[in-house]
Amino acid sequence: MAYLDTREAFATAAPVGASSIPAAFERSEWEVIVLAQRDDIASLRAPGWLARTFAALFGGNPDRRLASPRLEALRRLAVHAWHQGYAVPVSAMKGFKEVGFSTDQLELLLSSIAQGRTADRHGY
């Protein structure tokens, strides 16, 4: 399968992965992607006063956001992808790229999660 490389004004078609930018994630980044499968969309919002009150009374941390802006952008995109497939919000993709991830990494993330979603659905 090939795609049109728009980075060079529609120069030529190049196979996916032919970029000079490495598309791999570090181990900790893969862990964030896998753990994001358990988070729901509500985890992307800051906890409300009720959640903070319950946490203060009964312990725990209602805030699932990560301290690292890079890993948090990765988590946000991964949560959307686990729940919505390729229909992730533009804002999540923009935040992902703003913290230094590449387009190749975006494609790798979305395709990996799509495969994981298919395997979950079919029980592989």
From TrEMBL:
Q: What is this protein called?
A: Uncharacterized protein
